[in-house]
Amino acid sequence: MQAKRVIVGLSGGVDSSVAAYLLLQQGYEVIGLFMKNWHDDSVTLSDECPWLEDSNDAMLVADTLGIPFQTVDLSEQYKARIVDYMFAEYQRGRTPNPDVLCNREIKFDVFLDIALSLGADFVATGHYCQKGEMTTSSHTTHQLIAGADSNKDQSYFLCQLNQAQLAKTLFPIGGLQKSEVRKIATEQGMITAEKRDSQGLCFIGKVSLPDFLQQKLAVKKGDIVQVASSHPMYCEPQENSPEELAKKYIYTPSDGKQVGTHNGAHFFTVGQRKGLAVGGTVEPLFVLATDVKTNTIYVGEGKNHPGLFRRALWIAQEDVHWVRPDLASDNPMEVQARIRYRQPLTTATLHPTSEGMFLVFDAPQSAIAAGQFAAWYLDHECIGSGVIG
Q: Is 176 helix (H, G, I), strand (E, B) or coil?
């Protein structure tokens, strides 16, 4: 019987390197493919070329493992689907998550299509998550389960995958601890064994986001307004309904005092502390809200400022996604949820409506940012997600 073919997204890091090795041990025919996703000189990231080093490392790993290797240029698709989307979202005063988008639009869409065209039965990546299956006589349901290493679990980044994508995907290292992955790489003499994990934008590398955004978005001076923690709008809502709990604080310049200036409200996000360059406070200032129409940033003193916290968020119907569509319901559902990577899961309730969904947390959440993704779970299985409105 011919071995099933798996195309591994070799990124030049230790995780995908070990993923390829484990697949070989399991008897698969393995091919390594490196995705080159950036060479747009109109947006200068740095003088370095991180993708070139990563590509060379990926090629050396493939050579060590004795598997075929090639590079595929996806920069055109990456620019259109990720970078242009990022600029558009920031210009609207929202905060996109490029890593979640990169997985949905590039790794498990464009890359998956290329792999299938090359005769692959599956694609595989070095993500720390696990895949489960529930099979009946007529149907198989695929599960996206948190990685065994709770400190590295990356299921949040995959929260926009669908059943068709999961059906063709393998996560070979999802049941391992990071320390075990590095040990395997060392034992196999891989050049990536001690390589540090990549930082920054997916497939681009480490970059200062403000510098990156200023390549495309205009600098525009505006006011920084500090809002007191005793502001009357922080009183508890009179109604405990999802609609009331999800309401955003709408600030005006008269709600506080002008304490500084900035270079553009679209360069900032809710919860941000760095980059404000305003002193004279006992505790650091945090961004409470941005208004790109008036080009104003509203800030509050201290990480416990009440303006940072809300109990609920809204997701429009077109932005609701179910990894497990069989679990979608018109009734309220208690789940575990998070609004950012590595945030501990916390109890919340989904409240569906005809126009979308409210996600109401048992405890107030800090810095809920429009454009980010909320993901919800049952027993460590990611069953759905959505773009925060």
A: coil
Q: Helix/strand/coil (H, E, C) string of 327-353? A: HCCCCCEEEEEECCCCCCCEEEEEEEC
Active-site positions read 102, 202
pLDDT tens digits for 333-385? 999 999 999 999 999 999 999 999 999 999 999 999 999 999 999 999 999 99
What value, to the nearest 5°, has the Cα angle with vertex 224 and ends 221 and 226?
Answer: 175
- Specify the CATH number for 309-387; select among 3.30.710.10, 3.40.50.360, 3.50.50.60, 2.40.30.10: 2.40.30.10
E strands present in the chain:
5-9, 29-36, 69-73, 122-124, 129-135, 140-146, 169-170, 222-227, 256-262, 285-291, 296-301, 309-316, 320-322, 333-338, 346-352, 356-366, 373-378, 381-387
Which stretches within 178-275 are classed as H helix? 178-187, 209-214, 242-245
CB proximity list for 113: less than 8 A, separation 6 or greater: none
How buried is 75 (Cβ within 10 angstroms: 0-12 exposed, 13-18 middle, 19+ buried)? Answer: middle
Helix, strand, coil content of the chain in percent (nearest 5):
30, 30, 40
Q: What angle do CA 73, 74, 75 make, to 5 degrees?
A: 95
pTM: 0.92
The set of residues, in sequence order, having a beta carbon less than 8 Å from that of 115 and lying 6+ positions away, is 7, 33, 123, 168
- Long-range pairs of 111-117 with CB within 8 A, sequence gap ≥ 24: 111/9, 111/33, 111/35, 111/72, 111/74, 112/165, 112/168, 112/169, 114/7, 114/33, 114/72, 115/7, 115/33, 115/168, 116/168
What is the predicted pLDDT for the residue at 203? 46
| CB proximity list for 269: less than 8 A, separation 6 or greater | 95, 287, 290, 369
CATH of 5-212, one of 3.30.930.10, 3.30.450.40, 3.40.1190.10, 3.40.50.620: 3.40.50.620
The span from the CA of 226 to the CA of 144, in Å, is 42
Per-residue confidence (pLDDT) for residue 83, from 0 to 100 = 86
